[in-house]
Amino acid sequence: MSGNKKPDLKKEDLIKSPRAIKKHYENSPINDDDFRLSPKGLTPEERAEALDKFQDYEKQQKQFFLGYQANQKLNYSKTLSQYLDYHINNIGDPFVEGNFTVNSKMMERAVLDYFAVLWNAKLRPDPKATLSYEDWKDSYWGYVVSMGCTEGNVYGLWNARDYLGGKILLVDPKAEVAARKASLDGVAAPINQHGMYYQAKASKENPNAYSPVAFYSQDTHYSIVKAMRVLSIHTFNEIGSGKFECPLKYPEDYPPNYSKHYLDDNGWPLEVPSNEDGSIHIPALVKLIDFFSGPGMGYPVMVCFNYGTTFKGAYDNVKEAVDKLVPILKKNNMYTRKVYYDDKKFDIRNGFWFHVDGALGAAYMPFIEMAVQSKQLAMPLDFSFPIFDFRIKEIHSIAMSGHKWIGAPWPCGIYMTKVKYQLQPPDDPMYIGSPDTTFAGSRNGFSSMILWDYLSRNSYKDLIKKAIQTEEMAAYAKTQLEKLQEKLKTDLWIEYTPLSLTIRFKKANPGIVFKYSLSGEDLYVNDQKRSYSHIFMMEHVDRKKIDSLIEDLSKPGAFPPQSPKKQVQSFEYEPQHAKRILYVPKTGRGFK
Q1: Are 291 and 301 in contact (CB under 8 A)?
Q2: What is the per-residue pLDDT across 161-179, written as a single tens digit (0 to 9) for each?
Q3: Does domain 201-400 have CATH number 3.40.640?
Q4: Ramachandran region, residue 296 (left: φ > 0; alpha: ψ -120 to 50; beta: rest)
Q5: Please, what is the Cα angle at 12 between 8 and 18, to 5 degrees?
Q6: How far from 545 is each of 310, 538, 552, 559, CA to CA, in Å?
Q7: CA 312 to CA 534: how far, in whole Å?
Q8: Alpha carbons 448 and 446: distance in angstroms, whole number
Q9: What are residue 274's DSSP bridge partners?
Q10: Tens digit of pLDDT for each residue in 291-335?
Q11: Alpha-carbon distance 592 to 590, whole Å?
């Protein structure tokens, strides 16, 4: 087997993905043929050759890795590699051991407690104490997700949909009857406790009472959009466009330089408008939510805030947004409401759900805040620290990626909410979690070990220092790009969001994109389409990597000319019975 000879491409391969295959062979030193398997397996020599090529490739790409928010400075093999020969599964609730005892739930709980303190959530009481539901309800609940923040987002929005949708999880009453009968007969019989979903019924006065509508900005990661479709959650554009006059007037209700390309044919924004820095435009969000939750509409609302957007690294000012939205929700009787599950019993819930997608920022921004408070870091002018966590009492859930700023060998993360927002019976005095309260069944126990190992080796002081270093590296990269722009005497479209770890600039050529693993995005600026690259300052990024990039960007042809690209449509016609669904962006928005 040789990696020097490129294999012949079959016609069916070209049909599958001609662009991907062409790009792969043009830029990559290895190809699929180096790893082709056979029914007989591979000889030791073939395996060794393949693995050597793989290691060389990964080392090369890691050496120049700049384009994504994934920390490549990892140090887990010395302490944790032995556990690769164990199957460690944290199946079920983190706070219930269960019968699969080869788990790392003790580490998972320690990690969750750590972030509960970091995010100002209320710690859980001692499970051995005899406490009522009232003692438990404001405590945090969460788990370490097996996927990245995408899983936390999907799980949070799933909870939001059912919470706002008037669903209540009750114990099947027939199970209780069977248990009493078995007890009276003296027969030892296992009784399965079945759960039953109850759906509250909307009144004639407000048929939309249990039909949640979603709001998220145009800089939101595509996983949120995907979750909306998977969970059949309707967006404000889907519900309003073509049926009602848009409450936002163009251009007065939109941020400066907002492009008409982000409006649909009916004059509605496809998503909540973003400011130029990538943060959500709060005045537009307030007007939209007032319209949909107000008289004649009466929709409960779910808002997904971003805390470190994927491409621009922007932070929604969550506290300011919540402060502006709370009076609107109270005025429209959506701050609290009664959800009845029979004629007499009811649950008091919010008519809104605020979720924070903190994939990147929720891990390191608390340490930036500590650095600012201790005067080790100065805040940018005209910029205040954007609080996002459970200090804001209206926040329902937060999700975070562990493989980004912290760094892990695979995607992982954390989902956190409060006990009272789980769909449990509102008068359950014995709440300690349930066997299957997470999104997945089996869960990767290794991720909890990775996070525990990292946090056990790094103090707050260490993490503050790392956060400051990444901010300083972002400032250095921005300065070097500006010097290059001056040297080349051309506008490189350099943009930087305050306190972010990313700098975006005019898209580089494919060779540079491949070498540095640069992420790309098409954006409209003053109604003109621009293609950008960006770099992310993770812990592994140093001046040497930045200087290498600048050197390559200074060479002729580094920035190919850009021309307007024709939009590729999925269908060239609109079927008579087609139904409008949510806007699905076709550009990147990074990864989770």
Answers
A1: no
A2: 999 999 886 655 565 555 5
A3: yes
A4: left
A5: 75
A6: 21, 12, 11, 19
A7: 8
A8: 5
A9: 280
A10: 999 999 999 999 999 999 989 999 999 999 999 999 999 999 999
A11: 7
pTM of the model: 0.88
Domain ranges of the chain: 11-60, 201-400, 460-553
Instruction: Let me know if 473 is exposed, middle or buried by CB neighbors in 10 A (0-12, 13-18, 19+).
Output: buried
Rounded to a whole number of angstroms, the distance between the first and last alpha carbons of the chain is: 35
Half-sphere exposure of 534 (CA within 13 A, CB side): 28
CATH of domain 460-553: 3.90.1150.10
Distance from C-alpha of 221 to C-alpha of 226, rounded to nearest angstrom: 9
Helix (H, G, I), strand (E, B) or coil at 263: strand
Q: Long-range CB contacts (< 8 A, 24+ apart) of 44-51?
A: 46/1, 49/1, 49/3, 50/1
CB 67 within 8 A of CB 535: yes
Radius of gyration of the chain (CA): 26
The DSSP code sequence of 524-562 is: EETTEEEEEEEEE--TT--HHHHHHHHHHHTSTTSS---
H-helix or E-strand spanning residue 463: helix 460-488
Distance of CA 512 to the CA centre of its chain: 27
Look at residue 570 and tell me whether its pLDDT is greater than 50: no
Give 280-296 pLDDT, tens digit per residue: 999 999 999 999 999 99
pLDDT, tens digit (0-9, with 9 covering 90-100), for 516-526 = 999 999 988 87
Q: How far is CA 563 from CA 259, 390, 528, 557, 567, in A?
A: 18, 46, 10, 15, 12
- Which residue is associated with the tokens 């509102």? 426
Length of the chain equals: 592
What is the phi-psi region of residue 132: left when phi exceeds 0, alpha when psi lies from -120 to 50, beta otherwise? beta
Instruction: Name residues whose C-beta falls within 8 Å of residue 24's C-beta, 6 or more positions apart in sequence.
Output: 31
